């Protein structure tokens, strides 16, 4: 949301009250579709259609494509058939398919009725790809060239056909729908020989993704190669569309958000925070809370079974939170690092021995440092300064040894679980802090009480 | 990393052993700079320069720009002055500036010596911008037009000047270095009137960022407006460069990674996981572990001060981990959600009353659900089924009431701390799980023992 929107919103509100529609129109046409959409997001159902109708056709479609689905639905319900027809047919096919996917059935029928027959067919084809597949985020509107065209022919074709295409900056050379090569508009323009055939300047080492590849994989391929657009082929090797950089950026952003939500112990949500009501937030959050609460009772059972030991050495209880927290934090450091590396394709399952070795070394360093600081702190402050004579050297030794071992175990669990999850086909992000914490809690208490039993009783 | 690199690496290794250099060259020239860089990343210091010298000039520069800094340094140290000159002057200025920033001083001097004088000046100018500012990620190589040029003039200029520019797809209309308008190459090409002046087709409502804005802000602006490139102006309003979509994607990816690392209780690292050694990982992880371990001792102090109460009602101890963990998880759900919304500019500080109200409602729902399940579980399973008669209804009631209140407090703390942090100019991601957990642990224990004292003794 751009900084200046707040001021624009206030100006519009004032002008609206004064019914200064032509001034409002003058302001709106200076704005970008994305900004109009965010200014419109706060309008009520009476003002929204009023202002929307002030927009010129193309800008209206651009703003419409950027709106949240609630606002889109509100508008469509107020549209006449003619207005709907105009907006729908001005959309890019991927935006139209997104719209159809998000609207309730009654609205969908109206949209498809008003789409031109050819456009309706394209929308329906797009809708057949599974959610989050490369096919579902691609657009079918790209510029295709033939390899025997000359540079001049190609420029002519781009000037003629380019108006409706989502990008003209990368062109695709096809023959019988098979992709033969890629040629950036830049290479065409830079070529000073107007008669040179496209086959001589095209790049035949093409990188493609399949319609059924994940949209995340496609987006990271595009980012890896710094492409403006990435071609998508079906299982027969026919070119069916392209994914453009702006859609890839949205995919990567949403994917990072979803990973963070899962890592925070929530089911991912497609709605932005302020648009979600408390009930929706509750539904996204309660499953993990319940699951983790129930699993935490195992930790409770461990404590119960050592209750007699604890009663004999009450001083031990005070260190439970510190040991559990440090273990949890150590484990979540490792799991977050590994989950992110997996999602950026920096790691594969076969790297697991290297990862375990690296984490073992790191955890020895971290664990030793923590144990030494812990020993010093308890001995100097708690025992000598505060005069807590329950804290014998044996007790402190048990605490610090537990600390060292917990950190090692936590980091090894934290790094391996996400890799195993990915190998088994689950989302590694599930193996983040909350999950790891619960396991590590149990482990740290078992270690603690075992050492205590061995060394103190 | 593309899937096929593994196979290519093996093929290259075999060919290398057989000294089949011309075959290796044939393979390499079919590849993309990014893939060559990732294949080269596993080569040793003898093989790397050998294979690098097989690459044609332009591809060599492209691959070089994509390499990790260790590999770059290795190569430069082996380069003759002539080789270094060729590679350096073939780089885009932003890549050259990145290189200079990452190399040790002795190498930097050699690089700058070999850069052409004009290029050296540009690199030095780039280096003056603060780290992570828009200025530091921009490139100064863009196509500028004059508003009185005709469409035909503009096309001619782009064809002539475009070779060295990072993008030709958006052109910038300037007068005395002030930005007057933006014109996409597409609009120029689509305009059928060759004599039309650029002033008539350019868009004068330009969106710019300042050199000193954060690179993250610039990247999210570019993504918001779906721009291929975003112009950067200095404080006098002079246009100094552009940020291209591929660099913006890298900024957003690195920013998301850094956020996740901070949220996982680590200081962010610029090196990929497999390239960091255990000592580097240790240094990134130990500060937070130490800090949080020391803060967790407060939780221990709370337990110590209630030790007599605990000794009287030992059953209470068993529920400590469950209450602490559920509190921590509830808090981290809220904080992760808010941190991400802040980083996507979906929230501002003035939204804090709405956020608190939403979290209060959500926490009432979550807390009540958890309390009810908790009551049922303890009463039915622990008390009736397992026959633990210590668990009186009063004890269970204390546990469940604590659960409800802890969830509410945890969510309110979890949502407000990141917003306050941002307001005070800190990175909100610092206020994620580990930090919140430590605070919530203390709060949940205080609530627990207060209820216990009131209701049980």
Q: What does this entry look like structurally?
A:
The structure is a homodimer of 457-residue chains. By secondary structure, chain A is mostly helical. Chain A folds into three domains: 5-128, MgtE N-terminal domain-like (MgtE N-terminal fold), CATH 1.25.60.10; 144-261, CBS-domain (Roll); 275-456, Orthogonal Bundle (Tetracycline Repressor, domain 2). Chain A is 65% helix and 6% strand. Chain A contains 22 helices and six strands. Chain A has helices spanning 5-17, 21-29, 33-40, 47-52, 57-66, 69-78, 81-90, 93-102, 105-114, 117-127, 134-137, 151-161, 185-190, 198-201, 215-225, 245-263, 278-305, 307-312, 320-343, 352-385, 393-423, 433-456; strands spanning 144-145, 170-175, 178-184, 209-210, 229-233, 239-244. The first copy, chain A, has a three-stranded mixed beta sheet with strand order 1-2-3. Chain A has a three-stranded mixed beta sheet with strand order 4-5-6. The mean pLDDT of chain A is 88. Chains A and B meet through α12, α13, α15, α16 and α17 of A and α12, α13, α15, α16 and α17 of B.
């Amino acid at each position: 949301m751009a900084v200046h929107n707040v001021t624009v919103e206030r100006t519009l509100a004032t002008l609206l009250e004064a019914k200064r529609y032509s001034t409002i129109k003058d302001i709106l046409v200076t704005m970008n579709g994305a900004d109009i959409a965010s200014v419109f997001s706060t309008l009520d159902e009476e003002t929204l259609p009023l202002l929307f109708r002030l927009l010129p056709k193309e800008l209206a479609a651009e703003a419409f494509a950027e709106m949240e689905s609630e606002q889109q639905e509100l508008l469509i319900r107020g549209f006449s058939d003619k207005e709907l027809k105009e907006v729908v047919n001005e959309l890019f096919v991927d935006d139209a398919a997104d719209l159809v996917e998000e609207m309730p059935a009654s609205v969908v029928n109206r949209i498809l009725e008003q789409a031109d027959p050819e456009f309706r067919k394209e929308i329906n084809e797009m809708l057949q790809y599974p959610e989050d597949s490369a096919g579902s985020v691609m657009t079918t509107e790209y510029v295709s060239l033939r390899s025997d065209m000359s540079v001049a022919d190609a420029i002519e074709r781009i000037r003629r056909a380019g108006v409706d295409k989502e990008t003209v900056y990368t062109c695709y050379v096809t023959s019988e729908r098979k992709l033969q090569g890629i040629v950036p508009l830049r290479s065409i323009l830079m070529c000073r020989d107007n008669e040179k055939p496209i086959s001589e300047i095209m790049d035949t080492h093409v990188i493609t993704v399949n319609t059924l590849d994940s949209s995340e994989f496609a987006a990271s391929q595009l980012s890896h190669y710094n492409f403006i657009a990435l071609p998508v082929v079906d299982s027969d090797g026919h070119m069916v569309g392209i994914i453009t950089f702006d859609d890839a950026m949205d995919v990567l952003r949403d994917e990072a958000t979803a990973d963070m939500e899962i890592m925070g112990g929530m089911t991912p949500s497609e709605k932005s925070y302020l648009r979600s009501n408390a009930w929706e937030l509750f539904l996204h959050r309660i499953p993990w809370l319940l699951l983790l609460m129930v699993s935490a009772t195992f930790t409770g059972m461990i404590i119960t079974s050592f209750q007699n030991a604890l009663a004999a050495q009450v001083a031990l209880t005070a260190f439970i939170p510190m040991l559990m927290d440090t273990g949890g934090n150590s484990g979540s450091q490792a799991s977050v690092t590994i989950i992110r590396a997996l999602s950026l394709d920096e790691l594969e399952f076969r790297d697991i021995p290297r990862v375990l070795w690296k984490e073992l070394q790191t955890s020895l360093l971290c664990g030793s440092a923590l144990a030494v600081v812990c020993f010093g702190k308890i001995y100097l402050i708690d025992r000598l300064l505060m005069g807590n004579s329950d804290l014998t050297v044996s007790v402190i030794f048990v605490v610090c040894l537990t600390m060292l071992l917990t950190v090692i175990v936590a980091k090894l669990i934290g790094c391996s679980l996400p890799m195993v999850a990915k190998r088994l086909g689950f989302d590694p992000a599930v193996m983040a802090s909350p999950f790891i914490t619960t396991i590590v809690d149990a482990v740290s208490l078992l270690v603690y009480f075992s050492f205590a039993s061995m060394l103190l009783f």
